[in-house]
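Recall from the previous lesson that a structure prediction takes nothing but the amino acid sequence as input. Here we apply that procedure to Two component transcriptional regulator, LuxR family from Methylobacterium pseudosasicola. The sequence below is the only information supplied.
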Amino acid sequence: MATTILLVDDHPVVREGYRRLLERQPGLVVLAEAESAAEAYRQYKALTPDLVILDLSLPGPSGIEAIRHIRQWDGAARILVFSMRTGSVVARRAFAAGACGYVSKASPPRELLAAVAAVLRGERAMSADIARAIAQDEVAGGRTALDDLSPRELEILGMTAAGTTAQVVAEALCLSLKTVHNNLSVIRAKLGARTDAHLVWIALGAGLVSPSEGLPIKE
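The prediction returns the following tokens.
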């Protein structure tokens, strides 16, 4: 029987590229696509594919939230992250949420296909650059400033550093605007961020957002 895949990415052209690459491999079939964390969760519950391949940069709640919700519903779900984000903090949070593999989009196609095969065999998979980032982090002591943030604070920081307004963050995460502002104050204090630009710089340096996402924070 064919191995079924759910693709999660907010760019239709990117999803089409994934689909073509994957379906050229014998036995792989893209069963469905999603462009948000909420849609990914709904599609997974409705179809229970053999594998989920998802980006972390999604409109609203990130792919980390999608991983967490899918694994809460199905503890055996196989999820492979395919993302521009290469920071060890983000990769470790993805694994902690329940991801089985993590491949950066800078990797050659063969690394994605090798990771797909490994995850389907029940193994943990990482592209070479992700493995290197995690190893360097471990050698340096295994902790960064972002490790002191809660999962919710990390989510808010990621969305905010990508240029999302506090109002949109509140709506996407079902929080009050006051709660978002309070969380941002706590985040600044924990990270020692002097300005909003400094906050973005910290997020970029930790790989929480990619350079293409790191925009000036909107009020």
